[in-house]
Design goal:
Layout (H helix, E strand, L loop, with lengths): L2 H16 L8 E2 L7 H14 L5 E5 L2 E6 L3 E4 L2 H4 L3 E4 L5 E8 L4 E6 L4 E4 L3 E9 L6
Antiparallel strand pairs: 1-8, 2-3, 2-5, 4-9, 5-8, 6-7, 6-9
């Protein structure tokens, strides 16, 4: 099963089981259609620049903002411009809030240790670090 299919199936399971609204295309895995070896290198880069217990916002391969407080938080300008997110937390999920250039809104959950890319047309605007790894 490809990474994309896993993400789609996982998102659908979260949306049905956790009451989350996830719009297709709001986020993507860091691997895209690349190899597992490339994905491991990407994950290592994010982990190296995103220390526990932060949720880091990455642009151009560099961490531009990080958050560690639990609860709902509106993002600053640097975090809103991020193209990737890495959740370095061990037990907590990071619920991400997106808005599309069309005005449509969506949410997703970055589970502990997970990295997500933000697709074109979507921007992050808020974060909710929750004490559940599935953002419930």
């Amino acid at each position: 099963m490809t990474i994309h299919k896993r993400i789609v199936l996982g998102s659908a399971a979260l949306a049905l089981g956790g009451g989350l609204m996830t719009a297709p295309g709001a986020f993507a895995s860091p691997q895209g259609a690349g190899s597992a070896q490339t994905a491991q290198a990407t994950q290592s880069t994010y982990k190296a620049s995103c220390s526990y217990p932060n949720v880091c916002f990455i642009k151009g391969g560099k961490t531009v903002a990080s958050y560690k407080d639990t609860g709902y938080q509106k993002l600053g300008a640097k975090a809103r411009s991020a193209t990737s997110i890495h959740n370095s937390r061990k037990d907590d999920g990071a619920k991400l809030y997106y808005v599309h250039s069309s005005g449509k809104k969506a949410t997703s959950c970055a589970t502990p240790g997970q990295t997500r890319n933000v697709n074109k047309g979507w921007k992050l605007y808020a974060l909710d670090i929750r004490s559940s790894p599935t953002c419930k």
